[in-house]
Each structure stands twice: as structure tokens, then as C-alpha cells.
Amino acid sequence: MVGIVSRNDPCQQIQTIGIVYITVDTNWTLYLSKWAQTVPTSDRIPLYRDVASRVLAMIDAGTFAPGDRVPSVRALSRQLSVSISTVLEAYRLLESQRVVEARPQSGYFVRPRGPVPEIPARSKSGRRTVPIDSSDLILNITESATDPNLVALGSANPCLDYLPVARLNRFLGRVIREHPTLSHEYDSISGVEELRVMIARRMLEAGCSVSPDAIVTTAGATAAIQLCLRAVTKPGDTVAVESPTYYGLLEAIDALHLRAIEVATCPEEGIDLDELEKIVSRQRVAACALVPNHGNPLGHCMPDDKKRQLVELLNTHDIPLVEDDAYGDLPFGNERPRAVKAFDPDDRVLYCSSFSKTLAPGFRVGWAAPGRYLDRVKRLKFSSFIATPSCTQMAIAQYLEHGGFDRHLRSLRRTYRELMDRMIHVVGDVFPAGTRATRPAGGHVLWVELPEHVDSMLLREQAAQAGVSVLPGPVFSPTGRYRNFIRLNCALTWGPPIEHALQTLAHLAQQQ
Question: For a disulfide at 100, which of 108, 243, 324, 443, Cβ 3.0-4.6 Å?
């Protein structure tokens, strides 16, 4: 992320990374030049966050090691042509994130990072199919996650500070002014055409060539998953799922009176295809429902060769796949991972996604590209919902066309990568010995394995009394596994409340 050149060698080319030039003289003294280009303020993240990201990038690249002094406030202000107050805000942000520490009369120094916890082991497959025990637990947990008196470490809702709320509001207002009756009319069954066109273009990034007419908009990804499951199953059927898997998927399976069977899953590469083949060879499986890209809660990303093998395996057994790709746009690397549907020549993959994790959770705009099951999904949508709200669809369509979605995604990915890194190191630093944590390749949720004696269900109750919400592991399993696991949300504005909440969880776990 950093271009470095010797100051005494003027013939050497300076490399440009992002919008910062960096030069280093023979004494390894850092100099920062002005930005190489000007980005309109309205189109970028707040300036102090931009400055903080540049300093963090240099720390991550090794330009500043733990214990090193970073440039003084005045020096950085002069070198970047920003105000002293902007640099102070940037350093305060980095200080709250445990990246740097202030030393009286000396300046800011890079903090040593906490130990990195080990990665949890691969899970095991279930030996039997089970009907999911529908209880009030999920409802209670999700309601507590929205309690303003609790620090919401459990929910997977992104912080609105990171989303383009103001720009979307402007587009929504424009839609209402230009189409005053739109919100009062029924939408078509397929959804707003302008949005479906933009979605079809966006899906090219995931390797999918899909016609706008092959897309159906829904009230979020969960509704898309429910419709797709209904299209390929009947009550009593068995659905193969990752272990652990997204609890919303388990709730959808339960609501449709289906049975789930857990398949062993690697925290880094996803579902174990050998185990899946054994299961589908010995019993009838009506469908497979997976989150292959940055899965929730593991954060894994299935490699392309495994995605291709997965499609071949399911096609051999004539099993449809319901693919949840809600986190596919949030990789930590430069390339968006391809969807499993990109490897689907027979149109058996029912692709589902939404804008809830990237743009506007409350807009409830998702979609399905259900392949050969399109007509069935459209009939089910009509019989269940008739239509979905038009104004929010149109606002997102206009934002996708004119609002700078790709620029927003680049900023969001960088922010989530930084927050995930902070969370992993704090977990390694303050949680009990023996704690493990995943290394997500994208998204914003972290799966944490606590020592065996810790009961995450009890921990949830204790944490709620202390003002912290957390999601316990058993809700991610149809059989109640993962009693000593929790899922943490990293898409929160880091600061003393978050750090205190993590220390509270660590203390409660240690007490157990």
C-alpha cells in the first residue's frame, strides 16, 4: 500500500498508491507530500478518517513498527495540507482503535498489537436430519440487538455512519417529487425494471450473465431465500446447510416445515464437498442452501475450483442450490469473488442477495435470480406479497447509476478490513486463554470460539445485564451446537463503548 523511494536517488520513480506519495531519505526519516489529486469532499469519507486510513496503511505496510513514533501533528498537518484539528481527530480515532498511543511531551507511537488467536477447527457433519426447534429465542435475541441501551455486538447490522444515508435520502426525495404516485401504486411482480437492469449489470462483477427479466426483487435477501426454498422443496424435505450457518436461513427452513442436515465446514474455504457428497449419496436431499462468499458467521470464501466442483456435484444428483450472496460485495481484497451461479450451466442455482449490508438495511431491497425456477418464484411472490415497495427500489436504482456505488464500496471494504483487524487483535488480547477466532476474507462478522467451559447462552444473559448484546453459537445450528461460541459484529464505530463492551464479555467469560 506504500510507495517508497530514497530521497538521495532522484532518478528513482516514486510509486503512487491511492492518493499519497511517500519518500524516505537515507536516515529513514518519513516525509509525506501533498495528495496527488483532489477528491471532492462530498464524494469521500470524512477527511480525518481518510488521514487515519493513510497512517494505518503505513503501519500495516511496516513503515512504522510497534514502538515507532509516527509523524507529529504539526508535521503531518503540513505534509498533507490539512488542518491541525483534522490530524488530531485522525490520531484520536487511531488511539481509540488501539493502533497508536499518546505519550506526554513525546507525541504518538504505534502500539504493540495483541496476540492473534488461533483459527477454530473445521466443524463436523450431522448424522441425521432434524426439524428445527422453533422457539422465542431468536425473536428475543434480535429484539435485544436493537435495544438502544445495549452495545449491539450481536446483530449483523452495519453502522449507518458507514452508509451513504444522505445521498440515498436525496435520491429518494427526487423519486417522490418526480413520481408522486409511485409509492401508491402496485409494482410489477418482477420489480422495478430500472433496478433490475442495474442489478443485472452489477451481477457481471460476480461473473454472472443474467437478463433483467430473469431477476425478481424482494423485501431483502431473507425474503428471496424463503421464496427460493419454497420453489424447490415441500414440507418434510431435507435441506443441506453449512455448519455453522446463518440463523435467518434456519428460521426460514423452520417456517417452511423442512428438515436441516449440517455439513462439515472449513472456516476458511467453506463447505466440505467430500462430506456433502457422502450425505447426498446416502439420503435424499431436496436442496442445498449455502453462503459461499464471506459466509455468515464464519466469513469463509469458497475458492473458484470448489465452486465449480460444488455445481458439478449438485447437478449429478439433480439438487438445486439456494445461494445467499449478501456479503459478496464486501471482500477485503481488490477482487470481488465470483458467485457459485457463475459456474452454473444448467441454471440450477437460485441466487439471492440484497443491498442491506452495503447501502440501506431499512430499505429492505433484495432480489433473486432463480434460474430455471423463475416462473415458480414469481408465482410464489405474487401469492405471498403481491409486490414490493417501488420508491426505495427506484432510489437505489438511481444511486447505482449516479451515486458512486463502486467508490462507496472501496471505502466500505477498507473500513471493514480495518475494524475486523482491530477486533481480532482485541479478542486475542483480552479474551481468556484458549480463545480462537476466524480470519474472514470479507464481510463484517467474526466467529469466536471460547474455552470449552464457557456457556455462550449464559454469557448472553449476563452480558445483557451488563449492557451488551451478543449472539450465542447455538442459534447458528439446527441441533444447538457451538455452546462455547459467539458471533461479533465488526461494522460498528470503534470507540470506548465498543472496547469496554469487549472487555466486559472477556471478563464474564473468564468468570465462567
Answer: 108
Residue-wise pLDDT for 4-16, tens only, equals 333 333 333 333 3
pLDDT for position 466: 94
Cβ atoms of 371 and 348 within 8 Å: the answer is yes
Q: Where are the domains of the chain?
A: 22-110, 130-134+166-405, 407-511
In sequence order, the β-bridge partners of residue 448 are 437, 486
CATH code of the domain made up of 407-511:
3.90.1150.10
To the nearest 10°, the Cα dihedral for 104, 110, 114, 116? Answer: 170
Sign of the C-alpha dihedral computed for residues 102, 103, 107 and 109 taken in this order:
negative
457 contact partners, CB below 8 Å, separation of at least 6: 472, 474, 483
**CA-CA distance, 128 to 134, in Å (whole number)?**
18
Per-residue cell: 297: 458467521
CA–CA distance, 482 with 472 (Å, rounded to integer): 8
Single out the residue of 498, 365, 467, 454 nearest to residue 145, CA to CA: 467
Q: What are phi and psi of 197, to 5 degrees?
A: -65, -45
Q: Which residues contact 422 (CB under 8 A, 6 or more apart)?
A: 97, 98, 99, 490, 494
Cα–Cα distance for residue pair 423/335, rounded to 1 Å: 23
In CATH, what number does 22-110 get? 1.10.10.10
Q: Provide the whole-model pTM.
A: 0.80
Mean pLDDT of 475-484: 92
Show Cβ contacts of residue 142 under 8 Å, excluding neighbours closer than 6 positions: 155
Question: What string of DSSP letters covers 58-72?
Answer: HHHTTSS-TTPBPPP
pLDDT of residue 127: 66
Q: What are phi and psi of 361, to 5 degrees?
A: -55, -40
In terms of CATH architecture, what is 130-134+166-405?
A: 3-Layer(aba) Sandwich (3.40)
Instruction: Name the residue type at position 326.
Output: A
Say how many C-beta atoms besides its own lie within 10 A of residue 495's C-beta.
Answer: 12
What is the helix, strand, coil percentage profile of the chain, to 5? Answer: 45, 15, 40
CB 423 within 8 A of CB 488: yes
The CA–CA distances, whole Å, from 426 to 319, 377, 497 equal 42, 44, 14
Write out the H or E segment, with its range, that includes residue 177.
Answer: helix 165-178
